[in-house]
Amino acid sequence: MSNSGKSTVNWGLICHVAGLSTYIGLPVLGPMIVWLAKRKSEPVVNVEGREAVNFNLSFALYAFISGLLGVLLIGYILLPIIGIIHLSLVIWATLRANKGESVEYPLTLRFFR
Question: Which residues of 72-84 are buried (b: 16+ CB within 10 A; e: fewer)?
């Protein structure tokens, strides 16, 4: 069975799952690398990668602000909530991308259009 020259790699899925790089201390880096490396050769990466980068940048900013608010003790409550929401949305987006669906994350600032 031939795949007609098309890539069998689900690059949309990889764009979103790369957001988990946040949990090894590299927020945004995973999706950014995939997006920059493949956006010209894989049209789905230009859309899904940009969405993943915007989402992960947004949540890195939210986490930074939460850390600053830690001085007021509010951040100690917000930071775990932000982490749980981030992880849940990355998993949700990955599952949708695995089905070939396009993803638009909620709570996302659009740094790149």
Answer: eeebeebbeebbe
